[in-house]
Amino acid sequence: MNKGFTLVELLVAVTVFATVATIAFGITASLIHKQERIMHMHTLMENSSYALEYIQRATRMAQKDDGGCIVSGENYEHSDGDSTIQFLDYEDFCHGFSLGSGQIQETVSTDDTYGNLGSAVAFTSDEVDVTSLIFNLSGESGVDSIQPRVTIEFEASSKYFPDVQINVQSTSSQRNLDL
Question: Long-range contacts: 46-53, Cβ < 8 Å, 24+?
Fold first, then answer.
């Protein structure tokens, strides 16, 4: 009696093992890809939430300007189209937000004038590509009877997974009554 395996038995065993290993590897690779995608989606949502809250907090605390930062008597101003906003913040610094190089950027002056604005600093992750940023202003004029409001709209996507996208819109009103 021979103790061992025939060549056919070994080939069948190796084929079954290779098939199972290939399936397991494919499932593992797919799961890793899905996990990376979910992590980038999470990063995109975190950055969007942070940017929205940060901008809303700053614009909510804006105050009427006397003409150093923006037009006298105004609360907010588009300094360069709808993708930028400028205002006098609660600490009397000229403050602005804009879209540049696929990131939301912030500028703050050293005083209450437009002329001393510092260089723009991005505060969204470089893993996120902000494709659109729009500030819709209402009641920004000091002569109307509307409480100042800023509606922020932006679209962003993951730089590594461009199909992972988010569209955000939110409105906040100025904390100080516009009397």
Answer: 47/124, 47/125, 47/127, 47/128, 47/156, 48/128, 48/154, 48/156, 48/166, 48/168, 50/123, 50/124, 51/104, 51/123, 51/124, 51/154, 52/152, 52/154, 52/168, 52/170
Provide the whole-model pTM.
0.80
Q: What is the Cα–Cα distance from 83 to 62, expressed in whole angstroms?
A: 18
Give the C-alpha separation, 103 to 128, whole Å.
7
| Per-residue pLDDT band at 116 (split at 50, 70, 90) | confident
- Report pLDDT digits (tens) over 32-67: 999 999 999 999 999 999 999 999 999 999 888 887
Confidence at residue 178, expressed as pLDDT on a 0 to 100 scale: 64
- Report which DSSP code applies to 65: -
* Helix (H) or strand (E) segment spanning residue 23: helix 7-60
d(CA 82, CA 134): 5
Copy the structure tokens of residue 87: 């205002």
7: Cβ contacts below 8 Å, ≥ 6 apart: none
pLDDT of 1 reads 61
**Bridge partners for 130 per DSSP:** 156
Tally Cβ neighbours within 10 Å of residue 55.
22
Residue 91, burial from CB neighbour count under 10 angstroms (0-12, 13-18, 19+):
exposed
